[in-house]
Amino acid sequence: MGQLLDGKLVAASLKEETLQQANELREKGIVPKLTIVRVGAQPSDLAYERGALKRMAACNIDVEVKELDAEITQEDFVKELKAVNEDPATHGILIFRPLPKQLDENAIQYVIAPEKDVDCFSPINVAKMNVGDKTGLTPCTPTAVMEILRHYEINPTGKDCVVIGASNVVGRPVFELLLNEMATVTICHIETKDSSKWARQAEILVVGVGVPRLVKENWVSEGTIVVDVGINVDKEGKMCGDVDFDNIVDKASMITPVPGGVGSVTTSVLAKHVVKACKQQNGL
Ligand SMILES: Nc1nc(=O)c2c([nH]1)NC[C@@H]1CN(c3ccc(C(=O)N[C@@H](CCC(=O)O)C(=O)O)cc3)C=[N+]21
């Protein structure tokens, strides 16, 4: 059986680091704070919010949820966001996405203050990530993938990596973060003729598509390292990933479970980013 890549372990070790840094800031009289901007009450937003609130509490980071009406206009949303940008007590801002359809994400991405943008919504942070400028803030879930690899001393440098899924929130940033580590990266997407053919060549396979158990046993080779970013609910109401875990676990050399894999690391990365942003804003 392949080794389980245990996200809870990774999250716990990140938490220790972040808690210590948050406490050091508090000793200096600086209180690190995250403000969450939620429009409406989407179940997936609420699921993430619950996890984020718990994690911030564990890291001694303050958090405020700014809950906005589901029908809010573009103009009012921009006004609210600018107020959070300018709030000196707030060091990190997380806006749940996707936003409802009356709001124009392509315009709003330019409004969020880049130095507070802890989940990489601003094109400034996207550009910094894409050129490997470490002063920026990277997206939490893709960074959680990298933190799992780092924790288990899996160095992507020079490795053949295949990313399944080219979304702006998972696949593309994972591609860029792996490339920054000098991996050889192939990205497969909806128009790829045969993703399984590329996946079988992978030393590290990262999957983020949002299709329950898309990746079957014949997509992996003996020894592949499999990282599953999917969080789905199957027809039986059971949480599952994008990888057919039960049929792959024996073939893979290492594999993340769902739940308990990437998804359990994301909020720890969020906390780490709030502390990073807080330090930068205080010249530390
Ligand atoms: N800017 C932005 N970034 C996001 O990352 C983002 C977002 N907007 N909008 C909403 C979606 C949804 N989302 C979830 C994350 C974890 C669970 C979840 O269930 N987590 C489990 C752990 C799952 C596991 O262990 O794999 C938990 O916290 O217990 C659900 C949903 C993030 N999102």
From TrEMBL:
Start and end residues of each Tetrahydrofolate dehydrogenase/cyclohydrolase NAD(P)-binding domain: 139-281
Keyword Kinase: no
Domain of life: Bacteria
Recorded GO CC terms: cytosol
UniProtKB keywords: Amino-acid biosynthesis, Histidine biosynthesis, Hydrolase, Methionine biosynthesis, Multifunctional enzyme, NADP, One-carbon metabolism, Oxidoreductase, Purine biosynthesis
Gene Ontology terms: biological process: L-histidine biosynthetic process; methionine biosynthetic process; purine nucleotide biosynthetic process; tetrahydrofolate interconversion
SUPFAM superfamilies reported in the protein's UniProt record: Aminoacid dehydrogenase-like, N-terminal domain (SSF53223), NAD(P)-binding Rossmann-fold domains (SSF51735)
Reactions listed under catalytic activity: (6R)-5,10-methylene-5,6,7,8-tetrahydrofolate + NADP(+) = (6R)-5,10-methenyltetrahydrofolate + NADPH; (6R)-5,10-methenyltetrahydrofolate + H2O = (6R)-10-formyltetrahydrofolate + H(+)
A GO term for molecular function: methylenetetrahydrofolate dehydrogenase (NADP+) activity
EC number: 1.5.1.5, 3.5.4.9
Sequence positions that bind NADP(+): 165-167, 190, 231
Record's keyword annotation contains Amino-acid biosynthesis: yes
Pfam families for the chain: THF_DHG_CYH, THF_DHG_CYH_C
Pathway(s) the chain acts in: One-carbon metabolism; tetrahydrofolate interconversion
Domain Tetrahydrofolate dehydrogenase/cyclohydrolase catalytic: 5-119
HAMAP family with a match to the protein in the record: THF_DHG_CYH
Function of the protein: Catalyzes the oxidation of 5,10-methylenetetrahydrofolate to 5,10-methenyltetrahydrofolate and then the hydrolysis of 5,10-methenyltetrahydrofolate to 10-formyltetrahydrofolate.
Complex and partners: Homodimer.
Family statement: Belongs to the tetrahydrofolate dehydrogenase/cyclohydrolase family.
Protein name: Bifunctional protein FolD
Annotated source species: Alkalibacter rhizosphaerae
